[in-house]
TrEMBL record:
Origin superkingdom: Bacteria
Family matches, as PANTHER family: 4-CARBOXYMUCONOLACTONE DECARBOXYLASE FAMILY PROTEIN (AFU_ORTHOLOGUE AFUA_6G11590) (PTHR34846), CARBOXYMUCONOLACTONE DECARBOXYLASE-LIKE DOMAIN-CONTAINING PROTEIN (PTHR34846:SF5)
Protein name as catalogued: AhpD family alkylhydroperoxidase
Domain Carboxymuconolactone decarboxylase-like: 44-126
Single Gene Ontology MF annotation: peroxiredoxin activity
Keywords from the UniProt entry: Oxidoreductase, Peroxidase
Length: 193
């Protein structure tokens, strides 16, 4: 692990304060914060700034929770981010995703045309750093302009988190769901990334 969790004896008021936008006071310690936040707090200023954005994406975005979770899981899968995948597989049922939906996200193929477009948006943004006109228009059939903007920032924000967690070596807590490797069998709708 390149950036291990901050040891308990090094946590201080500044470290705990960096987590206040995400975690209640009783969880602002190494065990309560979990492996990702305990690693991030090694840089409290960055943590505090980034978590404000992350909290917006997760709790205040205009995206419907189901759309958010489809996008986040696809980002996690394509990035091979075990921590992000495990965390959001836990969240996904509360957003209305079934095990079949999660398997479809992993494969890159969903039966619902709009939800498939969400997965296509993740792929396009990863490959080209922009959305094509057809995907933008198809998203507009169910999402307004602000929601589409939130979708782009959600995909980008979680992509950034996946890069950080993968680079730092953050792993899921014991007992969390395992991530499927990004290089598993893909359908012809996607490329190996």
């Amino acid at each position: 692990m390149r950036v291990p969790p901050l040891p308990a004896d090094q946590w201080d008021d500044r470290t705990r304060a960096a987590l206040r936008s995400l975690l209640p006071r009783e969880r602002r310690h190494p065990d309560g914060a979990g492996p990702a936040m305990s690693a991030l707090v090694r840089h409290p200023d960055l943590t505090e700034a980034f978590l404000s954005f992350g909290v917006y994406l997760l709790f205040r975005s205009s995206l419907p929770p189901r759309v958010r979770e489809l996008a986040v899981l696809r980002v996690a899968h394509l990035s091979g981010c075990a921590y992000e995948w495990a965390s959001h597989v836990e969240i996904a049922p509360r957003a209305g995703l079934t095990d079949d939906d999660i398997d479809g996200v992993r494969r890159g193929t969903l039966a619902d045309p709009f939800e498939q477009t969400v997965l296509d948006a993740v792929r396009e943004l990863r490959e080209h750093s922009q959305l094509s006109d057809p995907v933008w228009a198809a998203l507009g059939e169910r999402l307004d302009e602000q929601q589409r903007m939130d979708l782009i920032f959600t995909i980008g924000g979680y992509g950034l988190m996946a890069m950080a967690f993968n680079t730092f070596g953050v792993q899921p807590k014991t007992g969390m769901h395992e991530a499927a490797p990004a290089n598993d069998t893909h359908t012809d709708r996607e490329q190996v990334v």
